[in-house]
Amino acid sequence: MGQSSVIKFYSGEQIPLELHKVRVVQKLNLKPVDERLQATEASGFNSFLMSTRDVFLDMLTDSGTNAMSDQQISSMLVADDAYAGSQSFDRAKQAVADVFGKKMFLPVHQGRAAEHVIFQALVKPGDVVPMNYHFTTTKAHIEIPGGAIDEIYTDEALKIKSTFPFKGNIDIGKLKALIAKHGADKIPFIRMEASTNLIGGQPFSVENLRQVRAICNEHKIMLLLDASLIGENAYFVKQREPGWQDKSIGEILLTLCDMADLVYFSSRKVSSTRGGGICTNSVELFDKLKDLVILYEGFLTYGGMSVREIEAMAVGLRETQDETCISQSPSFIKYLVETLDAKGVPVITPPGGLGCHVDAGGFLPHVPQSEYPAGALVAAYYIASGVRTMERGTISSVRDANGNDVLADVELMRLAMPRRVFTLSQVKYAADRLIWLYENRNLIGGLKFEFEPAVLRFFLGRLRPTSDWPTKLVAKFKADFGDSL
Predict the structure, then answer these.
(1) Catalytic-residue membership of 226
(2) Topology of 70-321 in CATH?
(3) CA separation (Å) from 311 to 40, 181, 188, 314?
């Protein structure tokens, strides 16, 4: 169903084409550079604390910002408003069965709510959870009940420039060694994230998941799949893994999910609407989790969501099977990555899902990790462009028991690419301003915290520059662009 959104033009260029038409528009504002500097200072150099009134292109995240389809919006008008037993839930449950192959479904209000329920039920003190890479909320929710994570990614995973197609794979040798070290009884489950958010939206292969599944069978360990970006992972399998080119996205999705004992997801990502879910074919697992859903989320047929959101989720899950829908974001990301790479801007390759990831360490080698180069680059890029992005580096990490920063494996600035939101001209603008910034990168300095929350500090922390570099950057921008925004 559907077709790829990458079209070969007569000139020979491969250009991503919007295979949808715009029917509703929202006005954007591009504020002058002086006002962008003021907005940066007012937000404590933290893009999460900015108001959208100050943002031109919002590339902070794809979570809850994907454009809904006309079918999703119209489905909300037929929602069955009921606290319990809603037919809207029945339709969502059937969509989960058709798309993920799981018969039992527990709705929750978003992905981290699913993590809270699952890890409260399955993780106990002293447990170790192997995974292909962590996500911030995942790590926190595993540590709260006394567990720990162990990332066993491949040697290719953290390389900035690579041609390896599946940097989200688990290293099978390391996984076997980990089980031998801790014992299977200390490993409640193995978690695979599709696709790895913090290291560039990188996918894993079907073959790698099969190998992980075989090890799970051997040691009687559960396999959990975070399916928040499973559609993009399936698209990359179709594009990159031999033997899957002739398979539909729907067939690949079912193949991946069939190998997992439990699948959970953020609907804000996978189906372009609010909410989330937990699904399984195990009655035992379902019974372990359902009481916690009632306690923390709501009744089993709404799980903290409105029934209108449940209706839109059901449609969105089915649209995840459509290659036309699912290919649009990866194709735009690929275009942006290749445009920047051609100009020498250090970006993660191969292009992944979720967004274009800029290597802030390579962009700003003169800024030490202790001064948060990824956070500094996010602030500098907003000043230069009005584009809001996200830091995925040491600010998104934590401090150790001695109060020292746990330095991130990679320092990244993520330009998220929500589905069906941006036009190609907007993507070209984002590239142009980043290329200018790279040519003037020596003007950018570091940051330091002035307010730092104890948990998930990247959401609410406030920082300030270590020098007057933002003012110098604005002066250079005005010299090069004049009165241009």
Answers:
(1) yes
(2) Aspartate Aminotransferase; domain 2 (3.40.640)
(3) 38, 46, 33, 5
Selecting among 286, 372, 458, 477, the annotated active-site residue is 458
Say which residue the tokens 């007012």 belong to.
42
Say which of 167, 269, 274, 334 is annotated catalytic: 269
Q: What is the pLDDT of residues 364-400, one digit of tens each?
A: 999 999 999 999 999 999 999 999 999 999 999 999 9
Q: Does the annotation mark 399 as catalytic?
A: no
- Structure tokens given for 75: 């489905």
Distances (CA, A) of 18 to 87, 238, 354, 471: 34, 20, 17, 38
83: annotated active-site residue = yes
Strand partners, 151: 131
Per-residue pLDDT of 121-153, as tens digits, reads 999 999 999 999 988 889 999 999 999 999 999
User: Which CATH code, of 3.65.10.10, 3.40.640.10, 3.90.1150.10, 3.30.300.30, is assigned to 6-62+325-481?
Assistant: 3.90.1150.10
Q: How far apart are the first and last CA of the chain?
A: 42
pTM score, whole prediction: 0.93
Q: Annotated catalytic, 400?
A: no
